[in-house]
Amino acid sequence: MHRIYRFILVAFVLVACVGCDQASKTIARGSLASSQPLSLLNDSVQFEYSENTGAFLSLGSNLPGEVRFLLLVVFVGAILAITLTYTITARRLDLMQLIGLSFLTGGGLGNLLDRISNDGTMEEGRTLCSNPGCPSAVSTSLPNSIG
Length: 147
Known about the structure:
The chain is an alpha+beta fold. The protein is built from four helices and four strands. The chain starts with a helix and ends with a helix.
């Protein structure tokens, strides 16, 4: 694929991911932050607002603020820059790999923007599922799941 087409495709996926991520967080903040969890299907599925100062599953949330900043903003930002550079420049990636890395990078950028703009806290809607075989808490970070 020609470099300009790769760049356009990656940029489109990144803008779509970050835009949808920020829009869903705005909706969650507006409709879930000040209310009880929203229950559906006889309490089988619940949507609730949460804030996460750590990484996945709140890992690192108890670390001092400076260490969290270094790990979750500086280090993650550097990894995302490397991933984005690789995604745009690697010629061996097929279309699905290119799209997958773009989704992964877009999801990470959305989370990084949250941390930068919310004093190190990531806002998210959280889906709780109580059916057997369903994880008890599923983050709504769709771009990371797709990537």
